[in-house]
Each structure stands twice: as structure tokens, then as C-alpha cells.
Design a protein that fits this description.
alpha/beta; Rossmann fold; 6-stranded mixed β-sheet; 10 strands; binds adenosine-5'-triphosphate; ATP binding; transmembrane transporter activity; nucleotide-binding; ABC_transpr_LolD-like; MacB-like_ATP-bd
Length: about 240
């Protein structure tokens, strides 16, 4: 298969010399050391490495949930290194979608209403919301379940709803943290197939995973160790 990154030359993420130091009282943890990374539009990047090596920290910085202690981060043409918390959250809402291991769906809302949430926060009209939600229900093959509540769905179906919710605002970057961690292998395979298809349709994905099989589905595999990039493998498409 052709590497999507070759089709899309636009650079989405430029990280330069990113360091993250957590300080708690007298204790400092140097979680990321001088990470430099470029991610291009259309790529599927997997981040792996042992527990505590900094994967979630890196994903939080990429997703503007947290800021680096030092270093530079450019998202498309926006320098997001030194923004206030409010500015960061505005850019996050516009440009970034998240999928977490635990789905994080709201139990008392229907599938439709869960997917609609990001657009409601943006104050979109109900017509725009309906069109966008219907489109994304189709994208993840969940249109026949739109009136269901999350507890009436399998884990794999819940994760597909979470993917639709992450994508409904048309983010530039989809960040995925252990998407199959709470799923059996059949549902895990279905969710991964869904992510692969979305990537083939042009969605840029950065995914943290412990599962070697799934990281091989990405075009690039970045292995962290003690907060540093230990190795980078390119073109490993399954
Ligand atoms: N909020 C925090 N305060 C202090 N230290 C933290 C905080 N978050 C993470 N750390 C530390 O930073 C280092 C990297 O943690 P991180 O959660 O990024 O690793 P990880 O690779 O995602 O681990 P896992 O695979 O177990 O989820 C660890 O030593 C961790 O203890």
C-alpha cells in the first residue's frame, strides 16, 4: 500500500527539543528529554514503549492538554508553545480529537447526543449538528444504533461511537490512547480496522499502544524509552 504521508506533504506537527519536568514538592520527574518530531498530514504514527517511558505525557502535550516545560511546538502554522490555558483549549477544541481507552461516553445520553457534544459546545446550529452527526454515524457504521444508550452497546461499538465523537468537529489530528485496552481481541481488531480505514480516508492519527500487532498497522512506529526516542521505524504497514 502507498504510504499516505507521501501523498500529503503538509506538515501538521513540529516538535523541537521538548522537555517535560513534573515537579511535586522536592521531587522532579524528567518525563521527556529533548523530543523532536515531525508529523505530516495523512500519517498514522504509533507510539510504544514500556510503562512510564512518557507516552501519555507526549500525547498530552501533542493534544494541548498539557504544556512542555521547555521546547517548541508548532501545530500547522500556529506556534502553540507559550499559549495560555484558555488559548490552548480553544485550539484544542478546533483542531484535535481524542479517543481514550475508557471510551468516556456519557451514559445518560444517546449515541447521537454523545457524538453531537463537541459541536454543541461550539454553538453550531441544530441543522449543522444533525448533518455532521449523521455523516459520522455512517463513517463508523453505527447509524442503526443512534438512539441506543452506551450501556446497550458492546465495548467495540462504544469505542466506535467515541471515534465518531472525536472526528465530528473535523479535527486536523486524531490522538488515540490505548484504543483497544478495554476490548477483547475481536472488538480490538474491529476498532483498529476502523482507524486504519479512517487513516486511508485522510485522517492523521497518532496512537499510543502497548500492542505490537497494532503498532505494526501504523506507517511509522516511534519507540520511547525513559523519555527519549529510542527508535523510529518507517513504512511498516501491515
Ligand atoms: N502528573 C504527574 N505528576 C508527576 N509525575 C508524573 C505525572 N504524570 C506522569 N508522571 C511521571 O512521568 C513519567 C512518564 O509518565 P507517562 O504517564 O507519560 O508514561 P507512560 O509511558 O504513558 O506510562 P504507561 O504506559 O504506564 O501509561 C513517569 O515516571 C510518571 O511517573
Amino acid at each position: 500500500m502507498e504510504n499516505n504521508a507521501k501523498k500529503h506533504k503538509n506538515k501538521l506537527v513540529t516538535l523541537r527539543d521538548i522537555n517535560k519536568i513534573y515537579t511535586k514538592g522536592q521531587i522532579q520527574t524528567h518525563a521527556l528529554h529533548d523530543i523532536s518530531l515531525d508529523i505530516y498530514q495523512g500519517e498514522f504514527v504509533a507510539i510504544s514503549g514500556p510503562s512510564g517511558c512518557g507516552k501519555s505525557t507526549l500525547l498530552s502535550i501533542l493534544g494541548l492538554l498539557d504544556a512542555a516545560t521547555t521546547g517548541n511546538y508548532q501545530l500547522t502554522d500556529i506556534d502553540v508553545s507559550d499559549l495560555s490555558v484558555d488559548q490552548r483549549s480553544k485550539i484544542r477544541n478546533q483542531h484535535i480529537g481524542f479517543v481514550f481507552q475508557s471510551f468516556n461516553l456519557i451514559e445518560h445520553l444517546s449515541v447521537f447526543d454523545n457524538i453531537a457534544l463537541p459541536l454543541e459546545h461550539r454553538g453550531e446550529s441544530s441543522k449543522t449538528i444533525k448533518q455532521a452527526v449523521d455523516k459520522h454515524l455512517l463513517l463508523v457504521n453505527m447509524e442503526s444504533h443512534k438512539h441506543h444508550k452506551p450501556n446497550q452497546l458492546s465495548g467495540g461499538q462504544q469505542q466506535r461511537v467515541a471515534i465518531a465523537r472525536a472526528l465530528v468537529g473535523e479535527p486536523k489530528l486524531l490522538l488515540v490512547d490505548e484504543p483497544t485496552g478495554n476490548l477483547d481481541s475481536r472488538n480490538g481488531d474491529l476498532v483498529m480496522q476502523q482507524l486504519k480505514t479512517l487513516n486511508e480516508q485522510g485522517v492523521t492519527i497518532v496512537m499510543v499502544t502497548h500492542d505490537e500487532r497494532y503498532s505494526l498497522m501504523a506507517q511509522r512506529k516511534i519507540r520511547l524509552f525513559d523519555g527519549e526516542v529510542l527508535a523510529e521505524t518507517k513504512g511498516a504497514i501491515a
